[in-house]
Each structure stands twice: as C-alpha cells, then as structure tokens.
Fold each of these.
Amino acid sequence: MLRFENVGLRYGLGPEVLRDLTFTIEPNSFQFLTGPSGAGKTSLLRLMFLAQKPTRGLVKVFGRDILTLPARELPGLRRRVGVVFQDFRLLDHMTTYENVALPLRVAGRDEASYRAEVTELLGWVGLGEKLDASPMVLSGGEKQRAAIARALVAQPELLLADEPTGNVDPQLARRILRLFVELHKSGTAVVIATHDIALMDLVDAKRLVLHDGRLHVYE
Ligand SMILES: Nc1ncnc2c1ncn2[C@@H]1O[C@H](COP(=O)(O)OP(=O)(O)OP(=O)(O)O)[C@@H](O)[C@H]1O
C-alpha cells in the first residue's frame, strides 16, 4: 500500500530531518508512529499523504512512484487516504455536518445520497447531537472527533492520524483508539502518530519509532 526505500527529506538547505527510511505499510495493517518531539513524525505523515516529495529515495503510494506521478493523478490517490490533522482544520463557517460531508460533496456526490451515512457516522463518533453546531462551539475533543469523522467519511483505504488524542482526557483517548481499532477491523490500514506511551500500550500493534531522523520498526 505504501513503500518507502532509502527515503531522505530535508527542508531547504537544512540537515536531513528524515534519513534512509525503508519500510512498508501493508493493506489492513495497524501501526503507531512515535518518537520524540521534532523527530519528524509530521514530516513523515506529509510524505505519506503526498503533501511533500522526498529529497531522495523511492516513495510508492498504492503502487505508484510519487516522483513520476502525473499531477492529474494526485487527487485520485489522495482520495484513497484519510487524514486527521493535528490542528483539525475544520471550517468554522460550516456546520459540523457540512464539514464532515465536505469530501463527499467535493467528490461530486448528491446530498440525498449521503445524508443518512454522514448522520450515522456522526452518531458513531458521539456527535449525533451536534450536527448543526459550528465547529467554533465544539470542545477540543468534539472537534477531534469531527475531524476523525471527516477523515473516515469517504471510506479511505489508509487512515493517517497526527496526534489524534492530543487534546482529550485519557478516557476519551481510549474511546478514540477503539474507533480506530474498529476501523482497522473493517479493513482500513491505520497509522497513528502519537507520543502517548500509555495509549500505545493498550493495543498490541507494530511501532514505527523515529529517532534522529531514522526509523526503527518494532513488530
Ligand atoms: N516546513 C518546514 N521547514 C523547515 N523545517 C521544518 C519544516 N517542517 C518541519 N521542519 C523541521 O523538521 C523537523 C521535524 O519536524 P516534524 O514536525 O516533522 O516533527 P514531529 O516529530 O512531528 O514533532 P512534534 O511531535 O513536536 O509535532 C524539526 O526539526 C522541524 O523544525
């Protein structure tokens, strides 16, 4: 699903922030991505969802080499990846329902065809009472769950989440983790970037650990 070979990344003329990364994300796998602050987790996620090209090495996403990918094929590949951003990126001038439905609207689907599924998904993440609320009035944990619902709504094959439990209490963090585990059981590959060791200890999953720009994989 994702293949990295000897990947390096530097910003401008700075030092390499990622070095010699070789690993695979398998279909329907579940893994944590961890490492100290500044180790490069967000940079690696940006490479995975095609927001960034590597400075060297091979990145293949769904079998396609991203360095030779024609620009017109990028949106189609991106649609197969759901992303939960660290800062949520919800649009305040829309309701929570409209935010979550946005990927389907952008894909050209008719509202009548998705209203029921978006409403059900919002219920699943515990926001059934907040459909019409602006994200501005949601709590941090509610925003996080809205961002998760938006990442899931188009049924991605791969879900990437950057610190998805960073703003919530331990109880809600466990609930969010259960959502991801359920998603994984339904066939989606999941990568969760986190610092939270207690959270990682709750699931027996592969750990991708970044340290000094290099990646170590613990099965
Ligand atoms: N756009 C950029 N331009 C220049 N340097 C950058 C840029 N983005 C990240 N960096 C640098 O790359 C390194 C890795 O940053 P990154 O945000 O990927 O780490 P992280 O592991 O996600 O950190 P955190 O856990 O604190 O969010 C840092 O030294 C950071 O300063």
Note: The first strand starts at residue 2 and ends at 10.
Amino acid sequence: MPSTAVKLVHVAVGVICDADQRILIARRADHLHQGGLWEFPGGKVEAGETVQEALVRELQEELAIAVAPEGCQPLTEIHHDYGDKAVRLDVWWVREFSGEPQGAEGQPLQWVAPHTLNDYSFPAANRAIIDAILSA
Ligand SMILES: Nc1nc2c([nH]c(=O)n2[C@H]2C[C@H](O)[C@@H](COP(=O)(O)OP(=O)(O)OP(=O)(O)O)O2)c(=O)[nH]1
Ligand SMILES: [Mg+2]
C-alpha cells in the first residue's frame, strides 16, 4: 500500500548539566540515524513509559548514571522531519544524578561550556535545542 507517512519517533532527551554548568554531549555511532553527529543523550520512549521514565532508563543504559525522575525539568519540545524519519524530541534538564557518566555503549563523551555548543556538529533538530539552552 503506497504511503507518504514517515515514521514518527518520540524521543526523551537529557541536557545534563554539572555543578560547573557544563553540558554533556555524546557522539552518535556512525551506523545510527544521524550517525557521526553529536547529541544530547537519550532515546526512544517505549510503549507504556512516561517520558521521564524513558529518560531515566536511557541515561542508565547509555551513561550508567542514576537520575531520579523528579530531578528532571522540562526544557523544550522540538518537532523535526528528517524526510526518512520524523522526531518529537522531549528535552529535559538533568541537574541531579549520581555516578560519573561513562559511554556505556562505547560512544565518546564530552563536557562542554554552553557557549561552545555551536562548535560541534549536531543533527538539524538540535539547532532549536541549543537556542533554548542559550536563552535559559
Ligand atoms: N538522543 C538524541 N536523539 C536525537 C537528538 N537529536 C536528534 O535529532 N535525535 C534523533 C536521532 C534519532 O532519530 C532519534 C533518537 O533515536 P536513538 O537512536 O537515540 O534511540 P535509542 O537510544 O532508543 O536507540 P535504539 O534503541 O534505537 O538503539 O532522535 C539528540 O540530541 N539526542
Ligand atoms: Mg539514544
């Protein structure tokens, strides 16, 4: 059956901020959608999960840190159509967590000052996330 509908993916995204106000970014593996670019850690919301539950689970899986759902605050929501895939990015501040983030899936991590975020290559949807961070 012909269809022009693209898959819509709901993603929980964490802007993780440390005590020095630096932000954690991770490099997406080359084989993934938007691979090779930097991202804010996170992943798809699964059926039956709240966005906060997905965020806590993804940050545990990807970074091996423990985040309490109540330690996260909403930052912004971005809708973006990549053509092959449309995403709804539910973006949250994460300022309280325990453990030191590690690239649990082998992904490079970097702590960066907010004003240097524009020096890194991100997926197109992240333009609006970075704007929201810089105007917060
Ligand atoms: N995590 C994350 N995803 C982003 C960002 N910007 C952006 O366009 N995306 C897109 C890329 C992907 O199409 C989608 C996230 O999917 P994902 O591959 O990270 O999902 P996931 O962690 O659940 O991975 P998997 O279970 O499919 O392996 O959102 C971002 O800053 N962080
Ligand atoms: Mg992910």
Note: Residues 42-43, 62 surround magnesium ion (ligand 2) (CB under 6 Å).
